[in-house]
């Protein structure tokens, strides 16, 4: 069975936590298997995932993704374990490097040696989650647990995934993570570059093939022009980030919106099947709220058919 999920939006008005819970219930009713939350500066994605998973059963909840700069893995692993306990084992722990411009401005830290920092972060994280302790001194991050880090109620550690696109980060993810969360990476670049690099690193490390959770902008609508205009507005931010610029170009596109799936239910499902044929193991629908709640629900329901 193909796992189909959706990234949830955040409202401008009302209570964001209540909205997240209501949206997750709607996603479940639409037939989706999981929901994902991006990290922002106004809410904590891990905390919100734990609350949603506590309120809505039989659906996985994940972060896509929490940037590692400005955060220490010993602290964030504790947050992840708390969400795993709150959801009774349905939490997906997604991490990211983040964008250099945002990181340096927000946290006042230098965005340096990101692949090495990620390797240190994941090494510490896996030790905390899998052994209940850590004693590690890396080139970028060190951590020593003065007391045990095992949390009562966590029967198994949450899977750790990375929003990886570039070769060096993919190699790190292949060695240390359970999967990746590629966004704006079309089927062509997934099949020919991203997945081979990831899988090769996993094999070299003696690890099983990682999951490939492809994040795909999608809208089921009978007004494709309006849909493309909405997706263009929703995704233009990513065109300013070098890692996304590179993968968009490698996917054969000039703009992020060109990688969006817009059209009838059959057309969107056909596009999603291309990602699965390219090697994606799961799909996460993104920007589905761009034309309002009715279009979002139609998009969720159309894609959920692939998971049945």
TrEMBL record:
Keywords, sorted A to Z: Oxidoreductase
Superkingdom as given in the UniProt entry: Bacteria
InterPro entries named in the record: F420-G6PD/mer, Lucif-like_OxRdtase_MSMEG_4879, Luciferase-like_dom, Luciferase-like_sf
Residue ranges of every copy of the Luciferase-like domain listed in the record: 7-281
Gene Ontology molecular function: oxidoreductase activity, acting on paired donors, with incorporation or reduction of molecular oxygen
PANTHER family in alphabetical order: 5,10-METHYLENETETRAHYDROMETHANOPTERIN REDUCTASE (PTHR43244:SF1), PTHR43244
Protein name as annotated: Putative F420-dependent oxidoreductase
Organism: Gordonia effusa NBRC 100432
